[in-house]
C-alpha cells in the first residue's frame, strides 16, 4: 500500500488529516448527542400555558394546513393565538380563524407584508409572560408547550427551541422532502450536542421558538429588529430567528433546545426544486449571522466557545468537503493512480456512501425506506458546498426567494429612497412654518428617515429657544401629515415617532425620565440599529 501511494504523500497526508479531523469532530457531536437530556416538566410549574403563553403566527398565505396546525396549538391550551397578516389578507385569515376557534384566535394586520413588522405587531399586543413564535404550518404534539415551558424554570432562560421533522405535503415524500428530513436529522444532532456541551446554539429555529415577553417588548430590541441592515444598506426581512438568537447571546440570556418526542414538531417543506431556493436563503442568513457573531459582536467566543468553533468550522466546510473529490478527479486525469480508474472511483463512492449512511442512522431507523435516497443526499452535499460559496459572494441578495410580495427589490428601495429625498426637500422648504412652544402635537405616522431629519431641526430650534430664554420649553415643528402620505410603515413609524418625541422632550426639560422613561434605553443602544 505504501508502495502504491508513497509518491502521492504530499497529497494524501493533508487529505488524511482533514478526514481524521472531520470524523473526530462528528464522533464528538454524536457522543454529546447521546448524553444530551431534555428538561423535564415539574409537577407544579411556574408557568402554565393557559395563563402565560401567547402564540404569535406571522403569515401571508395560510391555507388549509393552517387549520391542522391551529388545532394542534389549541390542544396545548395557550392563553391566546395572534395571527398577523397584511391588510388585504385579513378577511380570508379571519374566516380561517373563525372556523377553528374565534374566541382564542385574534387576527391583526400591518400595512404591508413584512415578517419582522408582523412579529413586532404581535409582540406589542401580547399580555402574557411567554411568547411562542410559530410558522403557520408547524404542527405540535399535545405536550409541546409543557416541555417548552419547563426550560423557563431557569430565571435566566431567554429562548427555547424544539426538534423538528418533515410532514409530507402529499401522500408520499418527494426526494426534496427526504433531503430536508436528512438535513433536519443532522441538525437535531448538532443542536443537541451544542446544547449539552456549552448551552449554546447557532439558531433557535423560527418554525417554533419561545421567548420571554419582557425581552421582546423592550423598545431597544424592537428598533434593532426592524432596522436590521446588512452592511448598513441592505434591509433584512428574513433571518429573524438568527437575530433573536444573537440577541439572547449578546444580552446574557440562556437558550435551550428540547430534543425529544414530546417537543418535536412537524413542518412542511417545499416538495419541488423550490427547496433549493429555501436552502439558498437559509445559507445566506447563516453566513451573515455567523460573521456578525464571530467578528462584530464576539460575545459568542466567551459565552459559547463550542458554538463559536462550529461556526468557524462551517466557514471552511465547503473547502474541506470539495478537496477530496477534486483531488481524486485531478489525479485520475493525470494518470497518477497505479490501479484501474474504475476501481478507484467505485471504492471512493462506496466509502462516501458508507460515511453518509452512518451520519443518517437516526433518520434511517425511523424511515428505512429513505435509504434509496442516500446517493441523492451525497450529490446534494457537494452541490450545497458550491452553493455556500455562491451564497458567500451574494450576501447583498436579501430577498425571501420563495414567497412573492414580502420583500422589496433593489429597484423598490431606490424608488423609496428617492421619495424620501423629495419629502425631506419639501420639509426643508417649509422650515418657516408655524411652530408651537410648550405644546406637543400628536405624533404623526412618518418614516424613520423623515423623523431623524425632522428632530434634528427640532434640536436646532431648541437651541435657538434656549438662547432666547426659553430653556424649559419644547419646540415641535408643525408637521403636515400630507408630506408623509406615501409612508408604508404607519403603525411602526407611529411607535418610533412617539419615542423620538420623548427623546426630544428629554433634551428640552427634565421631565423625560418621569414620563417617558421606557424609551430611554433606545439612546443607550444608539439610533443606527443593531449590528
From TrEMBL:
<dbReference type="InterPro" id="IPR052427">
    <property type="entry name" value="Glycosyltrans_GT2/GT47"/>
</dbReference>
<dbReference type="InterPro" id="IPR029044">
    <property type="entry name" value="Nucleotide-diphossugar_trans"/>
</dbReference>
<keyword id="KW-0328">Glycosyltransferase</keyword>
<keyword id="KW-1133">Transmembrane helix</keyword>
<dbReference type="Pfam" id="PF13641">
    <property type="entry name" value="Glyco_tranf_2_3"/>
</dbReference>
<keyword id="KW-0472">Membrane</keyword>
<keyword id="KW-0325">Glycoprotein</keyword>
<dbReference type="GO" id="GO:0016757">
    <property type="term" value="F:glycosyltransferase activity"/>
</dbReference>
<keyword id="KW-0808">Transferase</keyword>
<feature type="transmembrane region" description="Helical">
    <location>
        <begin position="315"/>
        <end position="333"/>
    </location>
</feature>
<protein>
    <recommendedName>
        <fullName>Glycosyltransferase family 2 protein</fullName>
    </recommendedName>
</protein>
<dbReference type="GO" id="GO:0016020">
    <property type="term" value="C:membrane"/>
</dbReference>
<keyword id="KW-0812">Transmembrane</keyword>
<feature type="transmembrane region" description="Helical">
    <location>
        <begin position="339"/>
        <end position="358"/>
    </location>
</feature>
<feature type="transmembrane region" description="Helical">
    <location>
        <begin position="370"/>
        <end position="393"/>
    </location>
</feature>
<feature type="transmembrane region" description="Helical">
    <location>
        <begin position="12"/>
        <end position="36"/>
    </location>
</feature>
Amino acid at each position: 500500500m505504501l508502495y502504491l501511494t508513497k509518491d502521492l504523500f504530499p497529497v494524501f497526508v493533508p487529505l488524511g488529516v482533514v478526514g481524521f479531523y472531520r470524523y473526530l469532530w462528528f464522533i464528538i457531536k454524536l457522543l454529546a448527542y447521546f448524553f444530551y437530556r431534555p428538561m423535564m416538566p415539574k409537577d407544579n410549574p411556574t408557568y402554565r400555558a393557559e395563563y402565560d403563553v401567547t402564540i404569535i403566527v406571522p403569515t401571508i398565505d395560510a391555507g388549509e394546513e393552517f387549520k391542522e396546525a391551529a388545532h394542534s396549538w389549541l390542544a396545548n391550551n395557550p392563553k391566546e393565538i395572534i395571527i398577523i397578516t397584511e391588510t388585504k389578507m385579513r378577511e380570508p385569515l379571519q374566516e380561517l380563524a373563525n372556523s377553528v376557534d374565534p374566541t382564542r384566535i385574534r387576527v391583526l394586520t400591518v400595512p404591508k407584508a413584512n415578517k419582522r413588522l408582523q412579529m413586532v405587531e404581535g409582540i406589542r399586543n401580547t399580555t402574557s409572560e411567554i411568547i411562542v413564535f410559530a410558522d403557520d404550518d408547524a404542527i405540535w404534539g399535545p405536550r409541546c408547550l409543557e416541555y417548552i415551558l419547563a426550560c423557563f424554570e431557569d430565571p435566566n432562560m431567554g429562548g427555547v427551541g424544539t426538534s423538528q421533522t418533515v410532514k409530507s405535503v402529499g401522500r408520499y415524500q418527494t426526494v426534496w422532502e427526504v433531503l430536508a428530513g436528512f438535513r433536519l436529522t443532522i441538525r437535531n444532532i448538532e443542536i443537541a450536542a451544542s446544547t449539552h456541551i456549552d448551552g449554546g446554539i447557532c439558531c433557535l429555529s423560527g418554525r417554533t421558538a419561545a421567548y420571554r415577553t419582557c425581552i421582546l417588548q423592550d423598545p431597544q430590541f424592537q428598533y434593532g429588529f426592524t432596522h436590521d441592515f446588512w452592511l448598513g444598506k441592505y434591509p433584512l426581512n428574513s433571518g429573524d430567528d438568527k437575530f433573536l438568537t444573537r440577541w439572547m447571546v449578546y444580552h446574557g440570556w440562556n437558550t435551550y433546545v428540547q430534543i425529544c418526542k414530546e417537543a418535536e414538531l412537524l413542518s412542511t417543506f417545499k416538495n419541488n426544486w423550490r427547496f433549493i431556493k429555501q436552502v439558498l436563503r437559509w445559507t445566506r442568513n447563516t453566513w451573515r449571522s455567523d460573521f456578525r457573531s464571530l467578528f462584530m459582536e464576539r460575545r459568542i467566543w466567551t459565552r459559547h466557545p463550542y458554538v463559536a468553533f462550529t461556526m468557524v468550522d462551517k466557514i471552511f466546510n465547503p473547502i474541506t468537503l470539495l478537496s477530496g473529490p477534486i483531488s481524486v478527479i485531478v489525479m485520475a486525469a493525470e494518470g497518477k493512480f497505479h490501479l484501474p480508474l474504475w476501481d478507484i472511483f467505485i471504492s471512493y463512492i462506496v466509502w462516501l456512501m458508507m460515511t453518509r449512511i452512518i451520519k443518517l442512522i437516526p433518520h434511517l431507523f425511523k424511515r428505512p425506506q429513505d435509504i434509496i435516497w442516500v446517493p441523492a443526499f451525497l450529490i446534494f452535499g457537494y452541490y450545497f458546498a458550491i452553493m455556500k460559496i455562491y451564497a458567500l459572494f451574494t450576501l447583498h441578495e436579501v430577498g425571501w426567494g420563495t414567497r412573492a410580495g414580502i420583500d422589496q427589490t433593489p429597484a423598490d428601495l431606490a424608488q423609496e429612497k428617492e421619495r424620501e429625498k423629495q419629502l425631506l426637500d419639501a420639509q426643508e422648504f417649509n422650515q418657516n412654518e408655524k411652530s408651537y412652544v410648550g405644546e406637543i402635537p400628536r405624533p404623526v405616522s412618518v418614516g424613520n428617515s423623515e423623523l431623524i431629519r425632522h428632530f434634528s431641526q427640532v434640536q436646532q430650534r431648541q437651541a435657538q429657544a434656549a438662547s432666547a430664554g426659553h430653556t424649559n420649553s419644547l419646540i415641535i415643528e408643525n408637521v403636515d401629515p400630507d408630506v408623509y402620505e406615501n409612508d408604508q410603515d404607519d403603525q411602526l413609524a407611529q411607535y418610533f415617532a412617539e419615542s423620538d418625541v420623548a427623546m426630544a422632550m428629554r433634551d428640552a426639560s427634565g421631565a423625560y425620565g418621569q414620563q417617558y422613561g421606557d424609551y430611554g434605553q433606545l439612546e443607550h443602544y444608539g439610533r443606527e440599529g443593531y449590528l
